[in-house]
UniProtKB/TrEMBL annotation:
Source lineage: Eukaryota, Fungi, Dikarya, Basidiomycota, Ustilaginomycotina
Pathway recorded for this protein: Metabolic intermediate biosynthesis; acetyl-CoA biosynthesis; acetyl-CoA from acetate: step 1/2
Residues flagged as site, Transition state stabilizer: 227, 288
Name of the protein in question: Probable acetate kinase
One GO term (biological process): acetate metabolic process
Length: 458
């Protein structure tokens, strides 16, 4: 769901806001977000969705109506040199740069100050994406008077160190903010979608007593799975494209980005997924190693040494210094694609990183197709996420690897959608026809968060 694009909003064009605007100025005007322009008791106000990562913060504001119209969308993206803030509103666009090195409470307060310039906003609820929720149900509400679940979320942060800690920090910042003091904070967990994975596919062959049986938050040493909000968002539109009810859809969904995973969907529900106890298991990513022999961890020098972030050095190495960054020397997949056809040492490293990534992806996609063959087969292979949606090179490499398999891409028509397009064999460098349509679908985690919140409220 996109907001309309219009003129670019600048400091000398009506808003009077510069990049030096201090977030604590005009608190009373900012509090207009807490009030509607109308006194109508039936006005449901707006929902602010926060999707935080280690190097980005995406946010959207929706009218809290069944249609969930997006009135504003924005992001804060950290780069090597600065941070770029972008906002799209129905009235136009605004951009600025800031000297930020991390997502922090100060970043949130600045964003709230920017939102306070839109007098029509009346934010009543803040919805947070939280990557790891273990057994906790999505829709968990946290308020100033009821914060007892925060301790569990903080403990779970050690199992999703790149994301959970940032989410918890932002929840605390919202609770402390004079702007959002009356708002309810609702948590949406990526793990919730994968609760349908049964014990055969979710169980690790470990002694539960030895591995830990009574951990906070009902945490078991088992596969939990992630990217659940992204997969749910895709499944919101996919059934109509395939001409099926959601409960009839069998698909292999590939969320490919800085973090990557694959999910086998059977009967519209998560059947298996590549990530496990943590997002580290499965496919390699920008800085994550993916699945490795567990004994490797014991041989990383100073493996148990605690880092400033609270995780061990081994966890930091596997989560932050591995993946594309370790093999190709860059975590940017676009740079890898640009380099991989050159004969330089950088090109050879880039080619190795790309080949390893495709090989691991083939392994998961192929194994899921085999598991699904006795459960109705595969109706579609779907790509989403930053790499999955944008990388033609990745699509071609994967198509070549699977050209002779039962998952070879087919040109059989699917229904059209502005959020999805079908990959044709000609653009993948293939002749003839295949068996399964391949689709590229745009995901929208913030929209899915808003839908979950509205569903929870009936």
């Amino acid at each position: 769901m996109e907001v309309a694009k219009g003129w670019r909003w600048s400091a000398d064009r009506g808003a009077g806001l510069s990049s030096h605007h201090h977030p604590t100025q005009n608190i009373e005007s900012i509090r207009k977000m807490q009030r509607s322009k109308h006194d109508d008791a039936e006005d449901a106000g707006h929902v602010l969705c926060l999707n935080a990562g280690s190097s980005s913060l995406k946010f959207k504001v929706y009218r809290a109506t069944p249609e969930l119209h997006a009135v504003l969308a924005g992001s804060v993206k950290l780069t090597e040199h600065n941070a770029r803030v972008c906002i799209q509103h129905e009235s136009g666009e605004y951009e600025e740069e800031q000297d930020w090195r991390a997502i922090s409470p100060g970043v949130l307060h600045h964003v709230l100050a920017l939102l306070g310039r839109y007098e029509e906003l009346a934010i009543r609820t803040v919805v947070h994406r939280v990557v790891h929720g273990a057994h906790l149900e999505s829709g968990l509400a946290i308020t100033r008077s009821d914060q007892h679940h925060l301790q569990t979320l903080e403990w779970l942060a050690r199992f999703a160190p790149l994301h959970n800690a940032v989410s918890v920090m932002l929840i605390r910042a919202c609770l402390a903010s004079p702007v959002l003091r009356d708002c309810e904070n609702v948590c949406c967990f990526d793990t919730h979608f994968h609760a349908t994975i049964d014990e055969v596919r979710g169980r690790y062959m470990l002694d539960r007593e030895l591995a830990g049986s009574a951990l906070p938050g009902g945490m078991e040493m088992r596969k939990w799975g992630f990217h659940g909000l992204s997969y749910e968002a895709v499944l919101h539109t996919l059934p109509a494209l395939l001409g099926r009810e959601r409960g009839e859809v069998n698909a292999i969904l590939c969320h490919l980005g800085a973090g990557s995973s694959v999910c086998a969907v059977v009967g519209g529900r998560s059947f298996d997924t590549s990530m496990g106890l943590t997002p580290l298991e499965g496919l390699p990513g920008a800085t994550r190693c993916g699945t490795v022999d567990p004994v490797l961890v014991m041989h990383i020098p100073n493996a148990n040494e605690r880092q400033p972030s609270g995780v061990t050095r081994a966890e930091a190495v596997l989560n932050e210094q591995s993946g594309f960054k370790a093999v190709a020397g860059t975590s940017d997949f676009r740079t890898i694609v640009q380099r991989h056809k050159t004969d330089s040492s950088e090109g050879k490293r880039a080619k190795l990183a790309l080949d390893v990534y495709v090989d691991r992806l083939v392994g998961f996609v192929g194994s899921y197709a085999a598991k699904m063959s006795a459960r109705g087969g595969v109706h579609a292979v779907v790509f989403t996420g930053g790499i999955g949606e944008a990388s033609q090179e990745l699509h071609v490499a994967l198509a070549q690897a699977l050209a002779m398999s039962p998952l070879a891409p087919a040109d059989s028509a699917t229904k059209a959608s502005e959020d999805c397009r079908q990959l044709r064999r000609a653009e993948l460098g293939l002749e003839g026809d295949g068996s399964v349509p391949w689709l590229v679908c745009r995901t929208d985690e913030e929209a899915q968060m808003a839908r979950r919140m509205m569903k929870m409220r009936g």
